[in-house]
Amino acid sequence: MNSLNLQVRIMMKRKRSPKPLPPPPSTPPTPQTQSRHSTNLSKSRLWIPLNLTRQDLSLPLTFPTGQTFRWKNTAPFQYTGVIGSHLVSLKHLQNGDVCYSLHSQSNHDAKTALLDFLNADVSLADTWEVFSANDERFAGLAQHLGGARVLRQDPFECLIQFMCSSNNHISRITKMVDYVSSLGDYLGHVEGFDFHAFPTLHQLSLVSEQQLRDAGFGYRAKYIVGAVSALQSKPGGGEEWLHSLRKLDLQDVISELSKLPGVGPKVAACIALYSLDQHHAIPVDVHVWRIAQKYLLPELAGSKLTLKLCKRVAEAFVTKYGKYAGWAQAVLFIAELPSQKAILPEHLRTIKQAKPAKIENSEEESE
DNA sequence: CGGTAACCTGGGAT
DNA sequence: AATCCCAGGTTAC
Questions:
Q1: CB-based burial, A255-287: b 16+ in 10 Å, e otherwise
Q2: Tell me: the pLDDT tens digits for A252-303?
Q3: Which of A19, A234, A266, A311 does the annotation list as catalytic?
Q4: Beta bridge partners of A101
C-alpha cells in the first residue's frame, strides 16, 4: 500500500501525462518524454549571465557526454535540468558566454547551488595547463574540447544513475534514469520534457523490485532495491552518509561504495569523481581502457581488463595528470566518443580499430 | 586471491 | 529473418 500511496502522489503531482512508455503493473509513473505541445514560457524568459565563457564551460561537452543522464537538450546550445529543487536552463550566447534561467520561483540560493553543481571553483585553465604540460596530445585536444568540465552532482542521484549505467548503453540508461526521475516531485516542463526533482531515498524506497523489472531495469532492479535498503539502514540517513564520503580518501570512498550491491569499481569511481570531490578518481571503462592501451600503457595492449589492470590504469592516469586526473580522463574520454570525434582534426582522432574488425580470412591470428 | 561464466535488455551488425 | 555482439560492469562460482 506504500506503493499505492506513491502512485497517488505521483498522479497528483503530474500536470500532464505523456505516453506511458514502460507500463508497470500497479504504478504508472511515466518517464520524461517528449510531449509535443510545449509552452512558450521560454520566450519571455529572464536569462542571467554567469561569469563563464565557453572555455570555462562548454555545455555540449559537459552535459551530454556521460556524466549525467538527467539533463536535456532543450534548444540549440541549451540544456535544462534539475539541481536540488531548482529547475534550471543553461545556454550559450552568441559569443559563447554562459547564462542561466530559473523555471521555478527564483530563490537566491539557486545561483549558489548552480555554481556549486558546476564545480565553478575549479579553474579549468589552471587545471588543463598542468595536463598540457605533461601531455602533448592533451594540449592538442584541449584546443578543440575547451570547456569540458566535471560536474559536482548530488551523490544519491549520481549513485542511482551509474548503477543504471552498468553493462548498458546510453539510450536505455537514459530511459531508466527518466523512469526513476519520474518518482520524484514534479517541477515543470520545458520544450516538451517533464522535469522532476530526483526522488529522495524514501521516495525511491517505495518502488519494488518487480516494478523496476517491469520498467525494464533487468537484473539491476535487485541491486537498486538492495542499495536503497542498505542506505536506509545507515545511521543518520543514507543521503547524509553519502555526503559524508566527501571527507574521505578516494580509496576509502571506493571501498565504502563498493559494499553497496550493484556497485563495483567502475561505478564507484564514477560516483567518486562526479559527486564526491574525488577529482583524481578514474572510472576505467572500455573506452578509458583503450585510451590507456594506446597512449599510457602500450605494453598492455591486447590484454584483457581485469581488476588489477583496472587499478594500474587508474594509477597511471594519476601519475601522469596529478590530483585532477579525473578531469583529464573526462577530456580524453570525450575525444573517444563517436559523436565528438567529428569535431577533431584527423591527427587527433584516436584508435581507428580498437577492436580489429574481422578481416576477410580468419585463419590467421594477427599478432 | 585471480580468472570466468551468467546476467536483463535492445539496437545494430552479420 | 535469425543470431550474434556489445553497451561507460558486477556478482557469484
A1: ebbeebbbbebbbbbbbbbbbbbbbbbbbbbeb
A2: 999 999 999 999 999 999 999 999 999 999 999 888 998 999 899 999 888 8
A3: A266
A4: A89
Give tens-digit pLDDT for A200-252: 999 999 999 999 999 999 999 999 999 999 999 999 999 999 999 999 999 99
Residues 6 or more apart whose CB falls under 8 angstroms from that of A96 comprise A53, A54, A55
Q: What are the helix and strand counts (H, E) for chain A?
A: 17, 7
Q: Residue A164 CA to chain centroid, in angstroms?
A: 11
Alpha-carbon gap, residue A15 to A194, rounded angstroms: 9
3-state secondary structure of A159: helix
Alpha helices in A44-169 (DSSP H): 59-62, 109-117, 124-134, 136-144, 155-165
Report pTM. 0.87
Tell me which nucleotides of strand B come within 7 A of a protein CB: 2-4, 7-11, 14
Give chain A's length: 367
* Alpha helix positions (H), A182-295: 201-205, 209-214, 220-232, 238-244, 250-257, 265-275, 286-291
- Say which residues have a Cβ less than 8 Å from residue A62's Cβ, sequence separation at least 6: A147, A148, A149, A151
Say whether the CB atom of A261 is under 7 angstroms from strand C: yes
Q: Which residue is nearest to nucleotide B13 (CA to C1')?
A: A357
- Closest of A164, A267, A174 to residue A217, by C-alpha: A164
Q: Is the CB of A216 under 7 A from strand B?
A: yes
Q: What nucleotide is nearest A310 when CA is compared to C1'?
A: C9
Task: Answer whether A151's CB lies under 8 Å from A274's CB.
Answer: yes
For chain A, the distance separating the N- and C-terminal CA atoms, rounded to the nearest angstrom, is: 61
* CB-CB contact of A91 with A99 (8 Å): yes
Considering only CA atoms, give the Rg of chain A.
21
Q: Which three cell numbers stand for residue A8?
A: 497517488
Positive or negative, the CA dihedral A263, A266, A269, A273 is negative
| Integer Cα distance of A67 and A49 in angstroms | 24
The answer for A250, left when phi > 0, alpha when psi is -120 to 50, beta otherwise, is: alpha
Q: In what order do the strands lie in the sheet with A78-83?
A: A48-49, A98-102, A86-92, A78-83, A72-75
pLDDT at site A354:
39
